[in-house]
Amino acid sequence: MIKVLYQNKNIFNYVNLTEYHNQNYTGKGVKVCILESDTDHRNTVAKSLSQSAPDCEIIYVNLSSIENTYQKIIDSKANIVTCSNGKIAGNLITLEQSLDLINRNILLLCAVGNDDSSGVVKLAKDENWISVGAVTLDNYNKPRLAEYSSIGEEIDIVGFIPYVQGGYVYQPIGTSFASPFVAGMCACFYQAFKELYNRLPIYQEIFNLLTTNVEDMLDIGKDIKTGYGLFKLPKVDNIELFIKEVNLLERIIKMDTISKIDSNDRTLIPLRFFAEALGCEVGWNNETKTVTINQNNKIIEHVIGTDIIYIKE
Hints:
By secondary structure, the chain is an alpha/beta fold. The protein has 2 domains: about 240 residues, CATH 3.40.50.200; about 55 residues, no CATH class. The protein is about 30% helix and about 20% strand. The protein is built from 10 helices and 17 strands. A hairpin with a 5-residue loop joins β5 and β6. The radius of gyration is 22 Å and the shape is elongated.
């Protein structure tokens, strides 16, 4: 187990990470991929991750070609990916590849960059990646936005930068080290979640966690400096309640097939799942090849192979 530095005590307490560590939720069994170039910078990113999730399995994927980067992430079997070099990675991972990764239930986190008002890095503009800005604790133990943290409407959340051990203990500078810290927090949550549900959270559940279990720092709601706010872990005893609450607000339905786009650029969706999600009853007559949708006695019928819909009120 990596040594957790006492200098991070106040940070851990602020985001409820201490409680997870005290209950031995330290990221064990969770794979976190660091998407980086092979540099000293990558080593500091790993140290930041290891402070929040000292027992997670770290996998390194070097930034290379488009095909290699995407495939290496898949081959790593990572649960979480954190990237602190979005300027380069933004040219190596396509929107379609990012979408495929989250469809594989891989959480994608990216540091927003250190250009202040110049905007976020390219990868952080991809809506499939959770873009992470940086905050530090001031002398009054209050979170304060790092003055260099990039600003833009794409920012989703902010996270703390932890102290790390080099030749001495220091706090690195850059959003590069907030993203892996948040990734480690998520790894601890994954471990606790799996113990409770015997599965890992699906993407929508962890997305809801990251964007709703936050401390609003500036404007009410989402703003261009801190996004939805500072991400904090829910109390361990409240995980089940939290998941029920967010799933009531946004129901999550797992389909047994996927939507498709045909050769005429038409989107084909599995009708049953959408209709039932809206509270309709769906019936099927195999003899007449007729599908029936009923909502409050308003009935829609369609015979497969025809271009007509019958509506009965």
